[in-house]
Request: fold
Amino acid sequence: MTVDTSHNSGRTRPGTSLAEPLRNVRALSREMVTHFLETVASCRTLPGESLDGDVTSVTRMCLELAVSMLDGTDAPEKIRRLEHAAAQWAREGVPIDTVHRAMHEGFRLGLDLVMSAATGHPHDDDQELLVLRRGDYDDLVVGARIVVDILDTMTSAVSKAYVRELRSVVREHHHGVHTMTSALLAGHPSSTMARESGIEIADRYHVLALAIPAHPEEANPAVDRTVVARRKLRRVQAVLATVGDTVLSLLSVDGGTLLIPADAETVDLDRLVATLSQAGQVPITAALVSVATADIPGAADQAHQLLDMVHRLRLERGLYRFDDLALEFQLTRPGPGREQLCTLLDPLDSHPELLGTLHLHISNNLNRQRTAHALHVHTNTVDYRLKRIAAITGFDPSQASGLWYLRSAMVARSYRDQPDSAKSVVPQRQPG
Reply:
């Protein structure tokens, strides 16, 4: 609540304004800055030019604003100047807690001066309680309300301007990251773009295609699935922000592309994907291709094709490098070889339980126990079905050669049966 000071000029009964002790703003502002250095530790870390220039001038501005309000006059210009200063602090990275702490310390010092002058006694915590006349007490109550209003006005002006500017800085940075990432993926980065965005272009990059599955709550009809999806994405982006400014990303709620400088040796990519999964509360899958900067467009397309293949083969979630699935990737290329491989599994079309068991068994890295658990059957049943597959197709999944053909046929067949399941290389960015 804002106190209306238009009908009270903040004067004591003898006619003396409560603002009198604050009128020598130049001397008092220098005294306050010295006080800040002694009482606010974070102020001592500010550059000398900030203390001698901005901090002193803003302190003087706050004192002038306080004097105006105590005199019962409006000071919109002084408020605008205070907001401008707060915006500058946000852009320069001065912590908001430092700003608020200094403001409250200055306010405390000014309040001591005002109250001491109003009572006619110097402020002393050990001093005996003053006995005031009823009129003097009423004047002090009115003055205290005005003083609270002053603090409210200053704090609100600083906080709103600081947050508004900080959001603007974040939007600019995100725009710069988006522009640079898009340019790299398109193969058109420039030194001018790098300079304007403040992002240094590396010689080589790890290109990661990410698939972010839906959060379980997105299927809950009682909640807004859009909100759940965006919160999931924000948690993932928060983790990426801790990795550093060198990580570039274009992400939507269901995945996207990351570009990480290949010389960033401190980034453990396997751990990063695991951490992103933990933050998003969903099992994220990623495919990795490492290339020179000029080859990023083709690598991004390749990484997303590799990611698509991981999904087609129903492989476990995690990070897959191109070397891990190079053979499978080659089998996806169109041609007579792929068409011939597709036919190897045709005899199983009339036995869906056998085809499903084969898919699951291969995706579980041939672990019989895990396959049996997933199918809710005994391991002996899994063994029986694998023998039936060998008898029907002529390829034994328990033998290296038979498994190679069956796995290759699964890869080729997945592209015949699902030709359009590949994800976009650069998904649309979510608003906000």
